Structures are given as C-alpha cells and as structure tokens.
Here is the input.
Amino acid sequence: MAPVAAAAPQALPDAPLEAAMRRAFALAANGPATGVNPRVGCVLLRADGTLLAEGWHRGAGTPHAEVDALRNLVAQHGPDAARGATAVVTLEPCNHTGRTGPCAQALIDAGVARVVYAVADPGRHSSGGAKTLRAADIDVRGGLLEADGTAFLGDWLVAARLGRPFVTVKWAASLDGRAAASDGTSQWITGTPARLDVHRRRAAADAILVGTGTVLADDPALTARDAAGELLPSQPIPVVVGRRATPDTAAVRRHPRDAHFYATDDLAAVLADLAARGIRRVFIEGGPTLASAFVAAGLVDEYLVYLAPTLLGGPRVALGDIGVETITGQRRLAIDHLEQLGDDVLIVARPRPLSPISPSSSSTRISKGA
Ligand SMILES: NC(=O)c1ccc[n+]([C@@H]2O[C@H](COP(=O)([O-])OP(=O)(O)OC[C@H]3O[C@@H](n4cnc5c(N)ncnc54)[C@H](OP(=O)(O)O)[C@@H]3O)[C@@H](O)[C@H]2O)c1
Here is the structure.
C-alpha cells in the first residue's frame, strides 16, 4: 500500500503574510546599511498568523535574522515553540556556512512548517536555501513583496548579482560642465548644502575612491564629515588608484581607516579586490580622468551630479573620453531623482537599460532642499 502523504500545512492568507513581510523590512532596516552582508529581517508567525517572535541581522559575524528570531522565540516560549510556525523573511534563507551556520538548516532543525521570503538570494555561495528547505518537506514561497524587497536591498542586491561592488560616480560641475577651473582648482564649485549631501552619501559607502591626479591636485581627506566638520560615525575606506606615488604627507594617510593604494589602471581588478575584501558600495569622487575610465569600462551603476549655477569655461570638463565617437554611441541615462540643494541641483541618474534601483531612487522627486 502506498504511504499516505503528510497533509500540507494550511497556508496563511496573503494579508497577514504581507503585514509580517512589511514588519520584517522594518526590522531589517535596523541593521547596518554598509558592509558585506545584506540587511535582513525575519518574523515568526503561529499557524493562525499571530506573532511569535522576530529578529534581524546586525552585520557580518552576528546571527542572521532567522537565527536571531529563533533565539528570541526559544528565550520567550521554549525550545519547541517553532514547530509548525511560518517564517517570513526578507531574503531567501542562506544555505552556506560562513562565520555563522546555514539559516535553512536552522529553520529545518527548529521545525518550522513554512518559509515565505521576498527576494531570492543571488549569492554564489549562499543561494539554494529554498531548495534545501523544500527537500526537507517545508512549504516554501518566494517572491512575496519582491519589488519592495528588491528596492530595499538596493545597492547590495546589484552588487551581489554583478559579483562586484555597486559603483557610484559623483562629480560637482559648473553649469557649463566643468569640474575645475583652467588652473585645476575646484574647491569649491558647489555650496555647503550640496557638500553636506556628499558627505552623508559618502558615509553610506564602504569605500571612497579617487585617482592619483585628485590626490596630487586637491590633497583630499576623503572622510565623511558633518556640518561642524566632525567625523560621521561611519567612515568609508579611502582608496587611491594610479601609479604615481601618494606623498607621505597626504591627508588621505591620516584618514581614520587605513587607505588602500592600487598602482594600476586595471579598474575591474581593483573592484574585484575590493569585493574580495567585503566592499559592496564604492563611491568614486574623481577626478575626470578616472571617472571617465570607469564610465568607458561600463563599470558605473549610479551617477550623482551636483550642478552649480556658475560658469568656468576652459578645458577641464567633468568627463573626458568615455569611448563615445558619434551621437549614436551616446550613453543614455535615466534620471532617478532631482533635488535642489541651496543654490545647486543634484541629479541622480543610472544607466539605461534600467537596472534594479537603489533605495534613494524609488521615486523621482523635484524638491527644494535645505
Ligand atoms: N569637480 C569635482 O567633482 C572634482 C572631483 C575630483 C577632482 N576634481 C578636479 O579634477 C582634477 C584632477 O583630476 P584628473 O583627471 O587630473 O585626475 P584623476 O582622475 O583624479 O586621476 C587620474 C589618474 O588616475 C589614474 N588611473 C588609474 N586607473 C586609470 C585608468 N583606467 N584610466 C585613467 N587613469 C587611471 C592615473 O594615475 P597615474 O598616472 O598615477 O597612473 C591617472 O593619471 C583636479 O583639478 C581636481 O581639482 C574635481
């Protein structure tokens, strides 16, 4: 006689699952926005859809969201409380042992009946959690509020899919598109509100990268600072690319993080090395030669252009040779966001065709900022 299959667990309706997923996004947002790991939240529900426990990931080396939620559950309700529960997670549970164990196995061991996630894990080593769960007869549903999850994971997801850091190129330019005056001076083209916006965005990156030309011309500190000039809590690693030596007295050598120096022009290799060091978001601050090389190589995911109502004229254009020889070769961009910052205008754009958008780009907004 054929074995009788176990009855499938009663699936919860969408409304409580979507509410739990939204709560999981909110929990995930408590995690660090920079670093190698994604921000993930997890909500554990009883069979009737009521809340059992919740958790989130606090950064590399700490428990993943699912394990955090399971630990909270055990602490509150005892070791068997997860039996028959539904785990609602913003990202597919991981399947690999890194600094912590695989979440898929933790959920299986805890006895959950069902796992619902928003976004599939694109990681080369970490994906496959859904398959492992299904193989253990757990009911798995992926793609719940997937668009929200994709927007929430933003730069991290793009980096994971591309297998290299998410690259933002920023420049400040006069209305006639110059990044410096004819003598090379460029401080300052934009006003204080625009520069504060740059510092805030620097702090959200893992690394800030410039060419040797900018180091030699401007001696930038490459720190993220507030309006009073004080260091922000999060400081990206400073990176200098180019064969010329950085002087011993350069301000970048006094950065609170150790600077990385790459004496090369191989930008893909630089990004690969940074990725291997856990860098997921790179903020390129020029100058024009290096920025142009990144554009020409097709290695830019986002553009931040601060336009000041001033004219500089002369040869120092914001971008030089980007490999466009004729109009049909132009690099079309899509504008995500427009904002006035004091007297200046910020344009956030990304290459067409549309790639997954970053969190800052969920709506196009034209507003007058501080
Ligand atoms: N307005 C702004 O937002 C802004 C921002 C930054 C700088 N600036 C201004 O820009 C000027 C400096 O810019 P810059 O264009 O002279 O220098 P840069 O772009 O900062 O550095 C150029 C150098 O980058 C290195 N490099 C590494 N990989 C490369 C590659 N694949 N292709 C090309 N170069 C590569 C080369 O260094 P090696 O020759 O050493 O190998 C090259 O000479 C200054 O006037 C500064 O004030 C303006």
Summary: Residues 171-172, 179-180, 184, 186, 189, 210-214, 217-218, 241-244, 265, 267, 285-290, 293 surround NAP (CB under 6 Å). The domain at 164-368 is CATH 3.40.430.10 (Dihydrofolate Reductase, subunit A). Residues 229 and 265 are 33 Å apart (CA to CA). Confidence is low (pLDDT under 50) at residues 1-8, 354-370.
